[in-house]
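Subject — a protein and its fold

Tokens — whole-number codes for backbone shape
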Amino acid sequence: MNIGSISFSETVKKFSYRKDIDGIRAIAILMVIINHLNTKWLPGGYLGVDIFFVISGFVITGSLFNYGHGKGLPSLLYDFYAKRLRRITPALLTNIVICSAAVWIIDPQPQISLQTGFLALFGFSNFYLWKISQDYFSPSTKLNAFTHTWSLGVEEQIYLLYPCILKITGFLTKRLPDFFH
């Protein structure tokens, strides 16, 4: 099928890597880092996380086009989740092991941080952090070594729901190119 003068398969192939997306990611990273160093330097720097969520939605949708076109839901989900696990798990495990060791050694009351780290393994640290503080900017979250995992938890929850929603609603069917006419 064609979308204008570009075929669907060409559109999917061209999606694989975009330098402009990496540029936007770099800006978002700098925004968050500057905000964490000193909130007065860039008061809205935390919006870099929102930029990451938007980029993730764009990239996930493109990835699902690659995986989802012509596949059944079980095959789509297996391929999609396997790729995400291979990408996220090594860095997450390394971070949790190193931070847990540091918390255990340094923090006189490590229970809350360690609980947050444990829940981060399963993508639920955001719920726990919300339950214990209800404010990302509260002093209790600043002392938690795993506060930064809240955004990964949100992203992992989106990974669980988004492919199913797209497939069930028919967004990833052969009718997709007709959607753009």
Q: What stands out?
A: Residues 1-8, 177-181 have pLDDT under 50 and may be disordered. Residues 2-179 form one domain.
